Amino acid sequence: MMKIVVDRARCTGIGICEAIAPTVFEVDDDGGLVLLSQLVPHGVAAEVAEAVEGCPTLALRLEP
Amino acid sequence: MDLNPPIHLPDFFIGEPAPVYRELRKNSPVHWTDANGGFWGITRYEDIKWIASRPHLFSSARGVLMPGPNIDTDEVRPMLITTDPPRHQAMRRIISKGFTPRHINAMEPGIREIVRGALDRAEPGVELDYAEGIVAPIPTRIIADLLGAPHQDWEQFRAWSDASVGSADPDITLTSREALGILTTYFQNLIDLRDEVRTNDLISILMDAEVDGERLSHDEVMAFLHLLLVAGNETTRNLISMGTLTLIDHPDQLQKLIDDRSLIPSAVEEMLRFISPVTHMTRWATEDVPLRDKVIKKDQPVVLLYGAANRDEAIFGDDAEEFDITRRPNPHLAFGTGQHACLGLSLARLEARVFFEELLARFTRIELAGEVLRMRSTMVPGIRRMHVRLGAATTRTAR
Ligand code: SF4
Question: Record's PROSITE patterns (chain B) (predicted)?
Fold first, then answer.
């Protein structure tokens, strides 16, 4: 299963990832990104991949 | 083809830039223009992404507008958009709080109400100025509301915002400097009010915000407010007006959308790609950087032409020049990319989606009724006036 890695130094907390895959990403009230799941859950792999791809600051990465 | 297109002039953007962009992508992707002190124009998708994700090589601190006669690069206001890392990160996080998807989604009912109110002004079959009368007030109201400005002031914002972007439009009588002055006084009043009582609007968030343990300076708060007002206003207005015009120009796509309104979100993405409401952002090289067969010299400006990248056949395929509301994937750069990617993108998407939902729920005939008058601007060449007749396809005109 793939693991989601966030580069906190890059993330600007605008939540494009959350808009694409809300079951996995959530930006909290302080503008920090919270991973609702460390691993890519079943059934949403495509969304997560799209979120990783769509992050404008290249803050997201998938690792085996 | 003439490979010295006048990229520095508004007429270039309100004309037909697409064929020029195609030519440049192919034959001169890193293209030097002599005018206005000289700048590089970048047209390929991959190159723009590469530059935008290297803020240490390509700074925003000297301004993001392309060089022009009215642009002063020595006196750039300290805005979020002109701040480089690491300070940019910290500032950006503060303001992002007001723009998270959850925060923005909570605005949907309010936005719908504002949109409905605006559409109430349209009577079936009666010609009206769609751009000015219906579309223009919507984003202004939404952003003013977000900032915490009282409703009765909403209309004034529009004039000030129009003038303060410094567009070369002859209809605008206030100079950009005058408009900025008026806005500054106005915002100062709002700040003074919150000195007494804090609310939970964006102005209050800014006043309480700290970066590295220090409050934002007065100038920074001011610049933030101004940036948000201007950025949230012209751009979305342009997206909706130009989006409507693009649908009118592509009747098959309009019909498809009317037949299946669940396509609205994807149609909005395609409008963003196809129109690219913000034509460019500029960066300044901090050292000599080789790019393709050229070398960008230290201190030279680099203009990222989003509209060109968004038609790049290497990314969007052979039909890159076509308007297809079902296009997927659609990784356009209409909101820019990198650290400075548009903060308001969730809001802009929401506004456009709600607008087209409400529009098409009422009207299924949208016809142009006269000439379209464009805004003379190199950055957001929107629509000033566009007369349109709206009607419901099924209802015959009475009597
Ligand atoms: S899209 Fe990227 S920058 Fe934005 S919140 Fe998600 S990880 Fe952070």
Answer: CYTOCHROME_P450
Output the six-digit token pair for B349: 């998407």
The predicted-structure confidence for B363-380, as pLDDT tens digits, reads as follows 999 999 999 999 888 888
- The model's pLDDT over B157-178, given as tens digits with 9 standing for 90+, comes to 777 877 776 554 556 677 778 8
Among candidate residues B336, B340, B284, the one with its CA nearest the CA of residue B91: B340
- Give the span between the Cα atoms of B68 and A59, in whole angstroms: 34
How deeply is A11 buried, as exposed, middle or buried, from its count of CB atoms within 10 A (0-12, 13-18, 19+)? Answer: buried
pTM of the model: 0.88
All domains of chain B, ordered by start, with CATH? 10-391 (1.10.630.10)
- A54 near B CB under 8 A: yes
- The structure tokens listed for B46 are 């991959």
Q: Are strands B289-291 and A33-35 parallel, antiparallel or unpaired?
A: unpaired
Q: Which residue's alpha carbon is at the smallest distance from atom 2 of ligand 1?
A: A55
Give the C-alpha separation, B349 to B341, whole Å: 14
What are the tokens at A38?
């460390």
Among A10, A55, A61, name the best residue to mutate to test ligand 1's pocket (greatest count of ligand atoms within 8 A of Cβ): A55
